[in-house]
Amino acid sequence: FADLVLETWDLQCERNGREHRTAEMGCQQLVVRRGQPFTITLHFSGRSYEEGVDKLAFNVETGPCPIETSGTRSHFSLTDFPEEAGWSAVIQQQEEGSLSVSLCSPPNARIGRYSLTLETSTGYQGTSCHIGDFVLLFNAWHPEDTVFLREEDERREYVLSQEGLIYQGARDYITSIPWNFGQFEEDILSICLNLLDINPKFLRDQNRDCSRRNDPVYIGRVVSAMVNCNDEDRGVLAGRWDNKYEDGMSPMAWIGSVDILKRWKKFGCQPVKYGQCWVFAAVACTVMRCLGIPSRVVTNYNSAHDTNGNLIIDRYLNETGDEDRRSRDMIWNFHCWVESWMARPDLGSGYDGWQALDPTPQEKSEGVFCCGPAPVKAIKEGDLQLKYDIPFVFAEVNADVVYWVVKSDGTQKKSTHSSVVGKNISTKSVGRDSREDITHTYKYPEGSEKEREVFAKAEHEKRSLREEEEGLHLKIKLSEGANNGSDFDVFAVINNNTDTERVCRLMLCARTASYNGTVGPQCGMKDLLNVTIAPWEENRVPLRILYEKYGESLTQDNIIKVVALLTEYQTGDVIVAIRDVYIQNPEIKIRILGEPMQNRKLVAEVSLVNPLSVPLNNCMFVVEGAGLTNGQQTKELEEPVEPQAVAKFRLDFVPTLSGLHKLMVDFESDKLMGVKGYRNVIIAPQP
């Protein structure tokens, strides 16, 4: 027999991409999911492949120094029946001069870039030919993959959806912003793989790092560390919380991960300025979804940052309601992290499922700024000794807050009220734009027997949260929504649930604030020395908050913190009430003109009314949407926008993908920043 000569070959990127749900990454390279067969076609010149005469074998390799023992190299022959474990190659069909071969990786293969080589031999003669490269991803559709997710609609949301909503605002006023995850956009896959290849663990021991890339727990830990740059590790984002963002982008201005990851690559893996928790979480979510691990961004309201690990957050206020003596322990209005879905064979049964990963740099774990994966189940059960970082997340959702009022003579009085941590834990619903409350996955109902058991296990006494029915009560209420540019009222509501008249001093103080709990200047104040409340009566004391007072110092977080202190003269008892008031931005209106169809021009009309009493200068709209706009489109307005006038522009775009997509808009100006809006557009497939 003459030698078998390979003439051409086809990796069938398009067909394999469709079958492996990676087609949106483009047809330029072969991207497949592990444990699932993919087909390639080989064309021979001269004569066809003959079974029994010709031997065909394949070689797949990943990483810089592939070896069989670490699972980064595999050599396997063409057979009729694949072996149980390992890689396999099976003949699918044979025609004159061509051969279709089905290749399959094991469901626990290392993910990453692979090279594929074909070895042909007839008798003693053999040749080898490199027939291409491909990328292998995790496979949430394969029952034996550690990231297997049973429901198709969940796989669509948490692996395939390129857009989502991230919850912000305040516990009493939950808002959402749209986010373009864009994990299938051009270049993102190679940037994510690059991120794995410059992580310190890889640089320290390339072989060991590549051999561990079959484990989503390991990958999650690497991604959590690489999204922030706090370890001099060429991480993606630099964090900043002090409202000084002039030498970069304000964290509030981003509307997607694609722009951030592309900037990181373009500037030689220098950290992109700046991120805050939802930006870190969203970028990590993009990387995890891109690699095939089901992931979602979650928001925890009234999130505790317990630096000394005692599960108690001590806050000190002076008699006028100002923070006294900075405590390192903080309460954040909200805090975002990522949950990724995976099995935890390293922990024994019961801890599979959602794992919390927090890429925001807060505390070190094993010497590095990363956090997780922490099984949400372990957080709920108070199993603090399991890997990784469960005590920190447990505190974020469970710590107790104690307010101490420091009197002018230096004595401290413990407040009878303490605000409650870990509320309304939220994520986007599957397949809908509504909020799903997942608090019950992190903790048992408050005051339940089960909750007390968990706290005993975590060696922490949970105070009984039931407020005594009797006595004085203090709350802060809002009459209606607070709109940016307008004045509004807040009310201190005092209830005297006793049989005797009470005489008190009431201090009300409002300050602009950032979402991480730091406060700015005062923007409203009232001190009433003589408030008398009759038995079983309710008093409402209003405080008017004026735009001319808060407008200048309002941060881009749009939060005003109102503190009320009620001191009862007879007993000296102090009650504290705190409320974060969210100042609403104007709505961005988006109209779609034309019939939305794939590869056909569409027009979006975007507008916003200036609600302020001053003109807006340097106005700019930024628009993006995966599969819609071909990257980010910006429009700078030449003229200032006068009070109550409309800022608007028209955008032409050609959608490349069919189906439901979000067109997302961010508006920036000198006085009004980080205003977000989006519109769902259903694009019909090309006929």
TrEMBL record:
Domain Transglutaminase-like residue range list: 269-361
- InterPro entries under this entry? Ig-like_fold (IPR013783), Ig_E-set (IPR014756), Papain-like_cys_pep_sf (IPR038765), Transglutaminase (IPR050779), Transglutaminase-like (IPR002931), Transglutaminase-like_sf (IPR036985), Transglutaminase_animal (IPR023608), Transglutaminase_AS (IPR013808)
**Database matches in Pfam families:** Transglut_C, Transglut_core, Transglut_N
Lineage, top-rank taxon, reads Eukaryota
Gene Ontology molecular function terms on file:
GTP binding; metal ion binding; peptidase activity; protein-glutamine gamma-glutamyltransferase activity; protein-glutamine glutaminase activity
Localization of this protein: Cell membrane; Chromosome; Cytoplasm, Cytosol; Mitochondrion
Specify which residues bind Ca(2+) according to the UniProt entry for this protein.
Answer: 398, 400, 446, 451
SUPFAM superfamilies linked: Cysteine proteinases (SSF54001), E set domains (SSF81296), Transglutaminase, two C-terminal domains (SSF49309)
Which catalytic reaction applies to this protein?
L-glutaminyl-[protein] + histamine = 5-histaminyl-L-glutamyl-[protein] + NH4(+); L-glutaminyl-[protein] + (R)-noradrenaline = 5-(R)-noradrenalinyl-L-glutamyl-[protein] + NH4(+); L-glutaminyl-[protein] + H2O = L-glutamyl-[protein] + NH4(+); L-glutaminyl-[protein] + serotonin = 5-serotonyl-L-glutamyl-[protein] + NH4(+)
| EC number(s) per entry | 2.3.2.13, 3.5.1.44
Any one Gene Ontology cellular component term annotated for this protein: cytosol
Keywords associated with the record: Acyltransferase, Calcium, Cell membrane, Chromosome, Cytoplasm, Extracellular matrix, GTP-binding, Hydrolase, Membrane, Metal-binding, Mitochondrion, Nucleotide-binding, Nucleus, Protease, Secreted, Transferase
Q: Does the keyword Transcription apply?
A: no
Q: Give the transmembrane region(s).
A: none
Which cofactors does this protein require?
Ca(2+)
The processes (GO biological process) annotated in the record are: proteolysis
Note on how the cofactor is bound: Binds 1 Ca(2+) ion per subunit.
- Catalytic positions are 277, 335, 358
**Keyword Nucleotide-binding appears in the UniProt entry:** yes
- Family per UniProt? Belongs to the transglutaminase superfamily. Transglutaminase family.
State the PANTHER family in the record.
Answer: PROTEIN-GLUTAMINE GAMMA-GLUTAMYLTRANSFERASE (PTHR11590), PROTEIN-GLUTAMINE GAMMA-GLUTAMYLTRANSFERASE 2 (PTHR11590:SF6)
What name does UniProt use for this protein? Protein-glutamine gamma-glutamyltransferase 2
Source species of the chain = Jacana jacana (Wattled jacana)
Name the lineage.
Eukaryota, Metazoa, Chordata, Craniata, Vertebrata
